Amino acid sequence: MVLRGYLPTSEETLQTLAALRLQSLNSDFSTHAPFPRLEELFPPRVLHARLPAPRRRTPPKCRGARLRAGLLAGGLWGQALAKQRAERDQRLRGRLREEGASTMAAILEKWKLLQGMGRPEAMAAYVALVREWPGFGSTLFDVDLRASPVVAAPQRLWLGIGAKAVSLYKPGEPEPLDSFCYGRISSFGASDSSTFRLSVEDRDLLFETSQVDEIARLLNTYLASAGARRLPQPQEPPSSLPAPDPAVPPQGLCPTAGPWHHRPPVGSFRS
C-alpha cells in the first residue's frame, strides 16, 4: 500500500521508510549491496505528481472548424503535432529521471544514517512510522464520488474500509472528509459493474470504481465480524461473491428485492 501511494504522509517520511526498507533488506549501507529499483522503495505516483499536468486542447465548436482541423491533422499539421508530442514526452521522461535520481540520493543519505540498526529494529521502526496515520489498517480504493452531501461536485477520492468504519479521503490527505461507523450503514451493493452504492442513514453515496466486487467483499467481511447475520444473495452476479458453503450456516447481511445488501436493525450490532 505504501509503494502504491496509499499512505498520506510527507515525502520526507516516505524517503525514511524507503531507507528503513533498505536497511532491513541489505543491512548497513554499502556500494556493493544489491540495490532495488526506485519503484520498489518509493511510490512512483509521488514522482509523477511533480510533473506538470498536460494541457488539454479545446476542440473546435463549429462543424466547419472541426472538418478543417481533421484535414490538417492528416497532413503536415498532424506531423508537426506528433513531433511536438514526442518532444514533450521526451522532456517529461527526462524530468522524471531527474526527480528519481534526486529522490534516490535523498534515500541513500537517510540509509547511511541507519548504520548499526538490525533488521528487526528497522522493521519495527518502519511499522511505527506507518502507524502514525490515523487510518492505519484501512484498505484504500480509488473512487469517483458523484455529487452528494459530502462533496458538491463529482470528485476523485479514496474510499477507506477499516475494521470499525468506512471513511472518505481526499487523495494524500491524512484526515477523512467524513467517516461512517458500521452501525450507520443501512445498505450497500453494486448497481452495475462499475457503480457502488453506500446508503448511510438517510443519504445515498454513489461511487464509480473498477473495484466494486473487492469493496463489497471487504464490507461483508467487516460487517460479519461485527456480528451481522448473512443470508444467501441470489441476485448477486456470480462473480461478485464466492458461493456459500451449504454445510455452513449463512452469516452476515440479509438480501432484499434488489441488488443491495441490507443489514438488520442497528440494535443487532455489537460494539
TrEMBL record:
InterPro entries: Actin_motor_Myosin, FERM/acyl-CoA-bd_prot_sf, FERM_2, FERM_central, FERM_domain, IRS_PTB, PH-like_dom_sf
Highest taxon above the source species: Eukaryota
PROSITE patterns hit by this protein: FERM_3
Name of this protein: MYO10 protein
Species for this entry: Corythaeola cristata (Great blue turaco)
PANTHER family listed in its UniProt record: AGAP003327-PA, PLECKSTRIN HOMOLOGY DOMAIN-CONTAINING FAMILY H MEMBER 3
Annotated stretches, region: Disordered: 230-271
Biased composition (Pro residues): 234-249
Residues in FERM domain copies: 1-233
